[in-house]
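Chain A, query sequence.
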Amino acid sequence: MRTIARVLLTLVLAVAACAGGYELWNYYLFSPWTRDARVQADVVSIAPDVAGYVDDLRVKDNQFVHKGDILMLIDQARYIRALATADATVAARKADMDNAEQQAARRAKLTQIAISDDARETAIFTAASAAATYQQAVAGRSTAQLNLDRTVVRAPVNGFVTNLTLDIGQYASVGTKVMALIDSDSYRVTGYFEEPKVPVIKPGEEADIYLLNGAPPLRGHVQSIARGITDRDKSRRSRTPGQCESDIRVGSARPAHSGAYSHRSCTYGGARQLGHDLYRCGGGAAPPMGDSRGAAQMASRSAMTPTIEGYREEPLPP
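Chain A, predicted structure.
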């Protein structure tokens, strides 16, 4: 009996080991997870549309602002005077237009004995010209009002102020970037998956994102799957087989740290640098570099499938 028990126990252990090995093999080769991922956000550059000295600066670097909040005020004295000049021009052109229209109406009532046809047509054309001049003055007044309104610079999106290079009393030029906003509603995770895992990735499926800073997992969903990616390690243009880029939106959650960026697409860090960059941006101590096992992971709770064309190596053009 002992021999039979030993054989059965050995068989059970062998079957359990085989099952466990199969599950691990299946997980590492086919489950939709990756360590090669980046947390990204859109960055909006803030540049004044009118020039002038900064009268008031109402934000600080790394401060969170809401859409529509006032960021800074530019000296309005010159623009208030320009608007007053435009108002006076509108009034003068309005008077000229009324006078020309009255003259044209009065001459239109005269007979051909009292006035010639040429004089009557000239009066009509003069009235039309005066009306056009008046409309031009109105447009100029609208531009003056717009310039005055643009002296108040507001936040176009919700987000964090960064790269603030301005102070009260400094002259702000038109189109010169003075700060940037990291759009807090645009956080996303871009992950690169191996080809065997691509067929089980589906847009719309939920995904969990784990960061190196030890924060609670972020919940998101697969928004889209790229048709191809570029291998930046090669000097020549190529298509990389075996990898797929997937864009995962991170719901309403946002990373706990933010830093200073000046590019359109802000990258918090790659697979092996994600935690390091997040700690650096937040001002904390950075974790040791070079440990790929501590990289960010994304795992889907249910099957996800993309519509992606197969990848294959092709010879580059000469």
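Residues 96 and 130 are 6 Å apart (CA to CA). The first strand starts at residue 33 and ends at 34.
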